[in-house]
Each structure stands twice: as structure tokens, then as C-alpha cells.
């Protein structure tokens, strides 16, 4: 199995929004990423529209539609407004995250037991629209939690890899966290769930993650990929990350 790469374009939008100008073009760079072989685009529209604007969604949907088999992944906290955006934009996958509006970025997974009823209802609504649903999950090695996720009815989990990415200067800690992520992923797979991953993944730390979780379905990468693109260009950076995913280039 080859791990798919979905390019998160939030950081590009954040840079654009510093000025009342149309560049850098979120749609244009999204198109470059897909032309270089990325399998999808990811956005996280927030209520304050500080990066992705709601008006970006239909334009990005059109970009994705120009590439066979590419997917549009929309992530966020499931307010009624957010669910409407996902429906209207024709999301292929929705990744539900437990963010507070004041958070700068996603930094923890769901408490699945506490929010089970809410998530059951939300997942059912999205799947009724034909949308694949992934739930943001802590990769803490708690295998029993995956029983709850299975009961909720999600198709996938997305492992929160922030602690792994943040331990680049401590190889022993990185190895410990990687094994916890792996145990969580193994437990999810044993229950028929597919596994995605995202947050602070780099071309350097991604190969070890893919090696430990060889059935990893998809990674969603934005901040580091965008930073690397400042040096290497978007097309070359996508190729570097595809290689890190184990894809043939």
C-alpha cells in the first residue's frame, strides 16, 4: 500500500491574507501541487477565516476536479456552519477535530467517550451525504479507545503526530512516541478502520512513520511542506514528500 499525500494549503492562504491581494494564489499553488503528483488538497476553514476563506472552497473544489482521483479533504470542528460548508463544497473526506475557535492549530485528539453521542450523530450525517469521515485521534497507544471509534461509525482516524514532529532533537523520545502511534494505528486497523496522520510531519521524519505504519492511507501536510516550498519550489517539494511517503517518483 502506498501512502497518499494531501497538501494542506492553509499556510499559503495565511500568507495571502497578510495583504488585500490575490497572491500567493491558493488555487494556483494547489494546482501545482496536484500536477506534481499530490493526491489531494486539505483545508481547515476557521470561523475567523484567518487563512482559508469560505469563498476559497468552491474554487479549490474546481481545482481538485481537474485531476483524476484527487480528493478534497476539509477538516474542522463540526459546527452547523462547518457541516454546511463541507456539504456545499462537495468534500470527499471530512476530518473532524475537537478545536476551540481560539486555538492557533489543532493540538489534541477527541475524547471519544465524552463526545461519543455527538460524534455518532455527526458522522452519520456526513456519511449520509456520501462523505468519508476521519476523526482526529491522539496516538497515545490506548488501544481500547479504538473500540469507541468503531462504535461511532467513522471510516478512519487521523493520528495527531504533533508530539512526534516536535521531538526531532530527541531521538529516544521520538522512537517512544512513534511506537505509541504505531500501537494506536494497529488497534484501529484491527477494528477495520483506515489510518491517516498529520501535524508537524517533515520529509525527514515521515519515512520512519511510514515504515512503522506501512498501511498508512494518507498524510496531510501543510506547514513544513509550505516552508520547504520557499526553498525548493512547490513542485519539487511535493516530489520530495511523495518520496518520503514511499511513492515512486
Automatic annotation (TrEMBL):
Keywords: Cytoplasm, Pyridoxine biosynthesis, Transferase
Domain of life of the source: Bacteria
GO cellular component: cytosol
Active site residues of this protein: 44 (proton acceptor), 75 (proton acceptor), 199 (proton donor)
InterPro entries for the chain: Aldolase_TIM, PyrdxlP_synth_PdxJ, Pyridoxine-5'_phos_synth
Site entry (Transition state stabilizer), positions: 158
E.C. number(s) listed in UniProt: 2.6.99.2
Subunit structure and binding partners: Homooctamer; tetramer of dimers.
Family to which this protein belongs: Belongs to the PNP synthase family.
Function: Catalyzes the complicated ring closure reaction between the two acyclic compounds 1-deoxy-D-xylulose-5-phosphate (DXP) and 3-amino-2-oxopropyl phosphate (1-amino-acetone-3-phosphate or AAP) to form pyridoxine 5'-phosphate (PNP) and inorganic phosphate.
Protein name: Pyridoxine 5'-phosphate synthase
UniProt lineage: Bacteria, Pseudomonadati, Pseudomonadota, Alphaproteobacteria, Hyphomicrobiales
Amino acid at each position: 500500500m502506498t501512502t497518499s499525500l494531501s497538501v494542506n494549503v492553509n499556510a499559503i492562504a495565511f500568507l495571502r491574507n497578510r495583504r488585500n491581494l490575490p497572491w500567493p494564489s491558493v488555487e494556483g499553488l494547489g494546482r501545482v501541487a496536484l500536477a506534481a503528483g499530490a493526491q489531494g488538497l486539505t483545508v481547515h476553514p476557521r470561523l475567523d477565516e484567518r487563512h482559508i476563506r469560505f469563498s476559497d472552497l468552491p474554487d479549490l473544489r474546481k481545482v481538485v476536479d481537474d485531476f483524476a482521483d484527487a480528493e478534497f479533504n476539509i477538516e474542522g470542528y463540526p459546527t452547523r456552519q462547518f457541516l454546511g460548508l463541507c456539504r456545499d463544497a462537495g468534500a470527499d473526506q471530512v476530518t473532524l477535530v475537537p478545536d476551540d475557535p481560539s486555538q492557533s492549530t489543532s493540538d489534541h485528539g477527541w475524547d471519544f467517550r465524552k463526545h461519543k453521542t455527538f460524534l455518532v450523530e455527526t458522522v452519520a450525517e456526513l456519511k449520509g451525504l456520501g462523505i468519508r469521515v476521519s476523526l482526529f485521534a491522539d496516538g497515545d497507544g490506548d488501544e481500547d479507545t479504538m473500540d469507541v471509534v468503531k462504535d461511532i461509525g467513522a471510516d478512519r482516524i487521523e493520528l495527531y503526530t504533533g508530539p512526534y514532529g516536535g521531538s526531532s532533537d530527541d531521538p529516544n523520545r521520538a522512537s517512544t512516541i512513534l511506537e505509541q502511534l504505531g500501537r494506536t494505528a494497529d488497534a484501529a486497523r484491527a477494528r477495520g478502520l483506515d489510518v491517516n496522520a498529520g501535524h508537524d510531519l517533515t520529509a525527514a521524519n515521515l519515512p520512519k512513520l511510514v515504515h512503522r505504519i506501512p498501511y498508512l492511507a494518507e498524510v496531510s501536510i501543510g506547514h513544513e511542506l509550505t516552508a520547504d516550498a520557499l526553498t525548493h519550489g512547490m513542485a519539487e517539494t511535493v516530489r520530495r514528500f511523495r518520496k518520503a511517503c514511499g511513492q515512486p517518483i
